[in-house]
């Protein structure tokens, strides 16, 4: 942390010049200073002592290892690129059936949990550094002293670690394991048990559905496996063959997921269940199925629930009609916004809707094997009272952060002080800060593990590199193992470390899958593939007759005094564990475009009634606490509700997380639903204006397109009549011939890209991937505020329309690699020029930093290095060694991942052939969960990108457009328009812009 | 007042100059121009003789520099390679009494790498792949390139470098590094080693390179480009006799990215 800006938390950067040096150079004179810097200091060549011989090693060469991402419970397969023994880039494992080679933003940023400067570096006893031996002695001693009064608090196990800890607890003299995950699906599993007799999470086959009704889930952000959801949802929802399937968002809040919806039905908070049953009742009347529900559903006919839900009976019947018309249906329910005190009942109601409309065994299928264990927050209540009663002597908290994540009204921190707390954690957190003994653990990149997230998927987690040398950490399971073995000689007689234990488990798996080879070759095969992947088996289920005993009531939140608080999940920060990763803080939230902060979404109508302006500081008070937070105008929220995203407001998680935003958990009650899930919705908040202006930083200049049509859309009707087709822009007469007509250009490659805005859902994985691949520095909140962010690709978000009928559009914006670029002609030193392969090349060592190019770039994608940005150790070990890390005074911008093009070309040349389609994959394209980005050679008529960008079939042709085509920059990126099923209200007032209520400003 | 404003202007100019040059890249480019007039050699931690190893004992370059054909870097041999022949203190094999070899054994027993001084240094903003040069197809050179080499009088002439490159094998290393086999002390023989002009000397001796250069991003390239297209492309060496496109070695992105 730089001292000069001590109060503005920023990633540290070197100051170019200090006062003392200025005078020094002034005295010497400029020219002398230059020459004085010229003493040739020869560099050193430091060889290795012994080369690694256990596997082939070549310097500067990429090696890939398969492992499993452990940032959330979804357990995507990961393929990590290492160079010179350092993991440098995480990508999805293409063999893995869940994510199929792609990763989300958090998965990309998992790199920064490995190299995070705020990792726990050494063992701590009461806040003081101690050697490992002493830490282990203390740990064994407290295990023996606790004599069975041990509680182990950790995440729900996805792999073998659960049974390992259970065995360990037995060996340690007994105790209890409590599973804690803030964003749990326990209520959903409970609802499935009631409705279908399966306490399990089914498969959601989006691609089979004709219409998706989404009851407040955020399935593209944090609910379930978001990467898989995104892919399958895009397959269902994307425009094809002149048709577009329907996605209707029924919720009091529009999150990133809701932003993709064709229609938003605003309902009162907590009434998802009533709406689902009302629709179900109409459908059942129509199709006459499930006769035993007849009387039950009579209670929920649209006319009866219309008042409670705030949706008129006509609209409810219309929705039912739509479901019948576009069947099959997939109805989804769950997530934070449905987590009221009748959360389980709500989800049972959604299940009834699915069953009645025939979605069961069609778009929703249960696996024949149970899902991994869920979390039970009821145990936490018990734990707190046990702790307070002094029943627990030793509390082991493993890699979770309950001090931060639990509602503060629960009193966990106070109760925790009553026991001896051992924290096993890789990252600093509020919990490690409060623990008596902290034993630093390794991250998933450095340790062994496995994950069985669902039937048919067995994923292995292997260390992809040796441990990061600045951290003195050990694998969690190995710490437990040696502590148990020193306390009890008989513990784990067959295992000397966790790998032994794991191999025991996997030799059982080998027998299960009927593999006849010896174990070693099986094991190598597993490591190569990243696991064992089989087709899952499904079982048929039907609706339980007893569901009729489940009563869904009107929660009546909309009528209560005050505004209902909806704590929403955060796409980037997750439950808060992402907050210490600089990339995730720096990348703007795609919906609000706000960086390094929290905000409170409020409907502009409500806000103006209350006299609250956009970006004012508001005191939000609930019976459980109060916080100061920035108001953010958002059409997508119920008029009697506010929403605050989770994940910020850390106090002891290191300098990247601490002090930014607020923690919404401070406002919540200590309350559980029937399944033991935390109740998030149901608290009323009062607002008080504190200050008219806040220091909130967002990266969008304007939320409106102002007629520029940057993120364009067409409706299905327009496309059906060929109306979306824009005549090719009339190019003015040109003095110079086109590059394609010039000798030496575009032979054989002209690199191009297409971005399908109908598939893009704004998840920002591409942005984080670009940070990881291209050594982009993180500049912090203050410098982002003055427009000095360094992202090469950004997700632009535009809002169309007003009020409830608004539309959100996303458009990834990166260097367009123009054929007729504005930047090239104004560079006085030819540092940027059009290269023979159509790349708008940027030569850093030629650049003198005039910044003319940036001035003349219409797309505003060029970034200037105002400083020598620092990558605080060990983050520098992540830097991609195949490209230059830029220094102060030079421009930089997207290169279409030229290092990947070069590497592929070298390989192809050595094989004696030209590049084939698909051999060069850019980092953004690689990670895109919906495959919205296509990259390739435009000169090859058979390449995928040519088919998207050039093909003359109506489907593609009518959707193709170039951003700001009228400037005649001839961009190499062709966008495919988003396809809407409606005209958005107020669309045409767009060009006037000034009519809008203050939505956002820069 | 005037003095104050003049001095402020001067200060400002100096500051802007300083800011510009502090980019580092320009500084190194300038320094290269200033420093390139001397043949460069430095005292090494061990008086290692390439002549002794490569000529008298006939060890091939890539026996020790084993990554040259596989990677961007040629690889400074790990200390264990030295120990492989010479043996550690406990079990001295080749040259048991040599003072210099014992220095190496000292490093080995201290488990320290040897801090060799880098003599052949290309700037950090250049990505130089050893492997692509070792594996390059010498048929891409102009047919008469390297023909006029006069080894006696001008052994470091362009023609001789090209001739060495054409020969292939370990001779190819000498094309850029000079006759390392005759060096007791490693030194940089080409005065302008590692400068762009020095690289381009050879790269312009590739078939089609000069023609391609003329069609670059200058107005000359655009001028009548359409009419000249077919003719130029025939002479430009875009496609080689094996049927795939030759890599373009004149584009900045070839080395600077």
UniProtKB/TrEMBL annotation, chain B:
Look up and give the organism this protein is from. Answer: marine metagenome
Xref: SUPFAM superfamilies: Multiheme cytochromes
Descriptive protein name? Uncharacterized protein
């Amino acid at each position: 942390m730089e001292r000069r800006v001590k109060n503005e938390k920023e990633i540290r950067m070197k100051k170019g010049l200090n006062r003392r040096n200025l005078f020094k150079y002034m005295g010497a004179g400029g020219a002398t200073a230059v020459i004085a810097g010229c003493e040739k200091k020869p560099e050193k060549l430091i060889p290795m002592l012994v080369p690694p011989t256990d596997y082939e090693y070549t310097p500067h060469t990429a090696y890939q290892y398969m492992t499993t991402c452990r940032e959330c419970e979804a357990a995507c397969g990961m393929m990590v690129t290492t160079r010179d023994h350092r993991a440098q880039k995480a990508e999805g494992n293409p063999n893995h059936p869940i994510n199929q080679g792609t990763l989300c933003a958090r998965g990309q940023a998992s790199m920064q949990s490995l190299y995070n400067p705020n990792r726990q570096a050494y063992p701590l006893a009461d806040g003081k550094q101690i050697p490992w031996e002493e830490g282990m002695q203390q740990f064994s001693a407290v295990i023996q002293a606790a004599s069975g009064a041990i509680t182990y608090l950790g995440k729900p196990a996805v792999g073998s670690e659960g049974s390992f800890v259970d065995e360990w607890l037995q060996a340690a003299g007994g105790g209890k394991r409590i599973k804690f995950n803030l964003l749990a699906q326990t209520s959903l599993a409970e609802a499935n048990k009631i409705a279908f007799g399966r306490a399990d999470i089914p498969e959601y086959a989006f691609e089979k559905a004709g219409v998706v009704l989404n009851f407040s889930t955020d399935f593209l952000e944090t609910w379930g496996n978001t990467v898989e959801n995104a892919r399958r949802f895009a397959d269902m929802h994307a425009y094809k063959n002149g048709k577009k399937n329907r996605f209707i968002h029924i919720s009091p809040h529009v999150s990133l997921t809701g932003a993709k919806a064709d229609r938003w039905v605003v309902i009162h908070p907590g009434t998802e269940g009533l709406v689902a049953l009302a629709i179900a009742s109409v459908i059942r009347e129509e199709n006459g199925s499930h006769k035993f529900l007849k009387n039950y559903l009579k209670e929920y006919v649209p006319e009866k629930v219309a008042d409670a839900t705030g949706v008129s009976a006509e609209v409810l019947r219309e929705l039912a009609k739509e479901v019948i018309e576009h069947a099959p249906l997939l109805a989804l329910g769950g997530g934070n916004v449905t987590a009221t005190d009748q959360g389980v009942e709500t989800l049972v109601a959604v299940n009834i809707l699915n069953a009645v409309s025939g979605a069961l065994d069609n778009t929703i299928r249960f696996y024949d094997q149970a899902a991994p264990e869920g979390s039970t927050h009821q145990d936490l209540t018990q734990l707190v009272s046990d702790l307070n009663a002094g029943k627990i002597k030793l509390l082991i908290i493993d890699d979770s952060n309950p001090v931060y994540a639990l509602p503060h009204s629960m009193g966990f921190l106070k109760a925790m002080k009553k026991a001896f707390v051992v924290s096993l954690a890789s990252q600093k957190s509020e919990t490690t800060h409060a623990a008596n003994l902290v034993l630093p653990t390794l991250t998933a990149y450095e340790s062994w593990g496995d994950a069985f997230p669902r039937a048919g998927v067995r994923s292995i987690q292997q260390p992809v590199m040796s441990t990061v040398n600045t951290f003195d950490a050990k694998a969690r399971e190995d710490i437990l193992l040696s502590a148990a073995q020193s306390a009890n000689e008989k513990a784990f007689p067959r295992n000397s470390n966790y790998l032994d234990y794991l191999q025991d488990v996997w030799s059982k798996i080998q027998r299960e899958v009927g593999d006849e080879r010896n174990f070693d070759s099986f094991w190598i095969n597993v490591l190569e593939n990243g696991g064992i992947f089989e087709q899952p088996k499904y079982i048929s289920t039907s609706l339980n007759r007893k569901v009729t005993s489940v009563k869904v009531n009107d929660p009546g939140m909309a009528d209560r005094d005050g505004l209902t608080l909806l704590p929403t999940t955060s796409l980037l920060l997750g439950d808060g564990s992402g907050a210490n990763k600089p990339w995730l803080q720096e990348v703007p939230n795609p919906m609000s475009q706000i960086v390094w902060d929290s905000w409170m979404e409020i409907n502009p109508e409500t806000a103006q009634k209350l006299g609250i302006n956009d970006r004012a500081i508001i005191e939000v008070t609930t019976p459980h606490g109060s916080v100061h937070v920035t108001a953010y105008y958002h059409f997508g929220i119920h008029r009697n509700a506010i929403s605050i995203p989770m994940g910020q407001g850390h106090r002891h998680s290191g300098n990247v997380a601490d002090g930014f935003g607020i923690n919404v958990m401070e406002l919540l009650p200590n309350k559980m639903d029937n399944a033991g899930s935390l109740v998030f919705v149901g608290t009323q908040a009062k607002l008080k204006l504190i200050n008219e202006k806040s220091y909130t930083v967002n990266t969008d200049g304007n939320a409106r397109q102002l007629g520029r049509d940057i993120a364009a859309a067409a409706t299905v009707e327009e496309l059906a009549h060929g109306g979306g087709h824009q005549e090719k822009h009339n190019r003015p007469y040109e003095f110079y011939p086109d590059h394609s007509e010039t000798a030496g250009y575009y032979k054989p490659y002209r690199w191009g890209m297409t971005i399908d805005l109908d598939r893009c859902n704004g998840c920002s994985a591409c942005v984080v991937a670009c940070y990881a691949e291209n050594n982009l520095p993180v500049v912090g909140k203050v410098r982002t505020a003055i427009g000095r962010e360094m992202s090469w690709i950004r997700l632009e978000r535009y809002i169309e329309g007003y009020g409830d009928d608004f539309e959100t559009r996303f458009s990834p914006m990166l260097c367009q690699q123009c054929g007729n670029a504005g930047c090239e002609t104004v560079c006085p030193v030819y540092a940027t020029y059009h290269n023979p392969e159509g790349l708008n090349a940027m030569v850093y060592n030629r650049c003198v930093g005039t910044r003319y190019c940036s001035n003349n770039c219409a797309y505003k994608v060029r970034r200037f290095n105002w400083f020598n940005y620092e990558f605080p150790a060990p983050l520098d070990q992540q830097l991609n060694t195949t490209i230059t890390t830029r220094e102060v005074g030079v421009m930089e911008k997207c290169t279409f991942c030229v290092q990947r093009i070069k590497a592929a070309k070298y390989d192809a040349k050595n094989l004696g052939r030209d590049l084939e389609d698909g051999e060069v994959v850019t980092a953004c394209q690689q990670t895109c969960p919906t495959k919205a980005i296509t990259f390739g050679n435009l000169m090859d008529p058979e390449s995928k990108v040519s088919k998207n960008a050039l093909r003359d079939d109506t489907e593609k042709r009518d959707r193709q457009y170039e951003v700001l085509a009228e400037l005649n920059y001839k961009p190499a990126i062709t966008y495919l328009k988003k396809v809407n099923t409606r005209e958005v209200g107020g669309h045409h007032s767009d060009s006037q812009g000034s009519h809008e209520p203050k939505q956002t400003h820069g | 007042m005037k003095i104050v404003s003049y001095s402020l202007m001067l200060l400002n100019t100096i500051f802007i100059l300083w800011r510009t040059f502090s980019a580092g890249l320009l500084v190194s480019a300038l320094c290269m121009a200033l420093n390139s007039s001397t043949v460069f050699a430095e005292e090494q931690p061990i008086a290692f003789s390439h002549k002794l190893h490569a000529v008298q004992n006939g060890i091939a370059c890539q026996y020790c520099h084993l990554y040259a054909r596989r990677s961007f870097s040629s690889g400074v041999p790990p200390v264990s390679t030295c120990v492989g022949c010479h043996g550690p203190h406990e079990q001295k094999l080749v040259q048991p009494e040599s003072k210099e070899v014992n220095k190496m054994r000292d490093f080995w027993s201290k488990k320290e790498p040897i801090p060799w001084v880098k003599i052949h240094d290309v700037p950090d903003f250049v990505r130089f792949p050893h492997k692509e040069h070792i594996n390059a197809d010498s048929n891409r050179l102009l047919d008469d390139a390297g023909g006029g080499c006069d080894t006696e009088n001008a052994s470091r002439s362009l023609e001789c470098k090209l001739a060495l490159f054409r020969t292939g094998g370990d001779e190819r290393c000498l094309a850029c590094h000079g006759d390392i086999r005759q060096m007791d002390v490693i030194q940089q023989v080409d005065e302008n080693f590692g400068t762009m002009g020095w690289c381009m000397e050879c790269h312009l001796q590739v078939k089609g390179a000069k023609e391609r250069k003329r069609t670059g991003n200058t107005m000359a390239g655009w001028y009548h480009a359409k009419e000249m297209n077919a003719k130029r492309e025939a002479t430009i060496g875009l496609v080689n006799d094996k049927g795939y496109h030759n890599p373009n070695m004149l584009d900045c992105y070839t080395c600077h990215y």
